[in-house]
Amino acid sequence: MDRNIRQFVTLWSLSLCALLAILNTGCTSVLSPVTGIPVFDLPDALLGVPKSEQVPVPVVLLARPHEEKYLLGEGDILSVYIDGVLPFSAPNSPPTPPPVNMPSDQSFLKPSIGYPIPVQEGGLVTLPLLAPFNVSGLTLEQARDEISRRYRDEEILPPGVNYPVVSLMQRRSHTVTVIRFNAQTAVGSDGTAAGYTIDLPERRNDVLNALMESGGLPGFNERNEVVIYKTSQIPAERRNELMSQLLAQPCGAGSHPQGLHFDHEVFATDANCIAYDNQLLEKQFIIRIPLRYYPGQMPHIRPSDVTLQTGDIVMVESRETELFYTGGLLGGGQFPLPRDYDLDVLGAIALAGQGIVSSNTRGGGGGGLIQGIGGASPTQLYIIRKLPCGRTYNIAVDLQVAMNNSRENILVQPGDTLILRYKPQEELVNFGIGTFFTFGIRELFQD
């Protein structure tokens, strides 16, 4: 009788200890299960696009095409010398030698002789004894001929007098603003932006020169994309109205791309979660130029896209949001994603300081002691991924399968949250091993 009571008490003790072990060792897969969409049930469009195959865009596409003839416009400064007229000298007096203009060190123009004549608003120039006339859109040779013709028509220049000397003293410039988020700039590494106000001379008023004047092509902390705000094309009287319309455009306006189907119920409730629209107001005033592309898919970059005018804003945005997050058995953390190559889930776990075999358990399955004596390692990974509309969905990745099947080893995307957990059977195995080494051996020695 005493033996039966003893066995009954032992059984109840083991049961109570087992219950406490389940509650205290973090058997999360049993007590708080998480569901996710298996990788094989997801369309390819939601698995991430590889970027390691991308190649840099030729930098020549970021510059204005070379033009043979320079066309005059508002803001240019001409150097003009007309014997006897500019400067004026009496017929019997010796001629006054013209001034010689030496370009600055930063200028690429040649030295010129003559007096500065600015091209005013509307392309007008004003010369002595002549009414203002337009030279906008003319070459230097055409402007010289036009000046000579007008003076001769007014009989100011008699026949036989030398032609006017007309050259370009200074090209017109365009003042643009460049905003950079590169941590290597003068602002330090606190993540704030550096702003530059740059005067770009005509023919060099393009994206390439704006980048070169502000620190070069985007660095690691910046996106492989240049955003151009064409504020020079926004009418001043409609600026607030257009900006309000731009900000009021709903997220998810548009339609699904052709050939993309969603079979899982998580996508069936909101048809606008993945949206593509080529008619947004943004595209009229904001130009995005990618700096990397897939072979065979060269981006269509027009000369007008990279040409900058006064008031335009060039921005190279930060990669601050291109992070992935970890949780569960991986512990809480955030890690930057590589910019120019891919990172899959196995690489992300290794980057987070974990391995599939040597996971540092933070609850569940009995802890690191059980793994040290042959316990099961966690192989269930859930990826919480956001859609463009802000909703999230869970992707279930079997790490054991991912080690043998690249289809399961999907790419990590910006904003993903990786949660590593035990499968129920793994927790039960670890619990059984822990229970045996905790209570079973003691009972063996007691018997």
Features:
3 domains, Polysaccharide biosynthesis/export protein, Poly_export_N, 11 helices, wza like fold, signal, Poly_export, 447 residues, alpha+beta, 20 strands, 6-stranded mixed sheet, 5-stranded mixed sheet, polysaccharide transmembrane transporter activity
In short:
The protein folds into three domains: about 1-35 and about 320-445, no CATH class; about 55-65 and about 175-315, no CATH class; about 75-170, wza like fold, CATH 3.30.1950.
3D architecture notes:
InterPro entries: Poly_export, Poly_export_N. Residues 66-153 form the Polysaccharide export protein N-terminal domain. Keywords: Signal. The protein has helices spanning 2-24, 28-31, 140-153, 207-213, 239-248, 282-285, 303-306, 345-351, 368-372, 399-402, 424-446; strands spanning 37-38, 55-56, 77-81, 100-101, 112-113, 115-118, 124-125, 133-134, 165-170, 173-180, 194-201, 225-229, 286-290, 292-293, 313-316, 323-328, 333-336, 380-386, 392-398, 417-421. By secondary structure, the protein is an alpha+beta fold. It has three domains: 2-33 and 321-446, no CATH class; 55-66 and 173-316, no CATH class; 77-170, wza like fold, CATH 3.30.1950. The strands form six sheets. A six-stranded mixed β-sheet has the order 1-19-18-20-16-17. Strands 11-10-15-12-13 form a five-stranded mixed β-sheet. β18 and β19 form a beta hairpin. The radius of gyration is 36 Å and the shape is rod-shaped. The two termini are 17 Å apart.
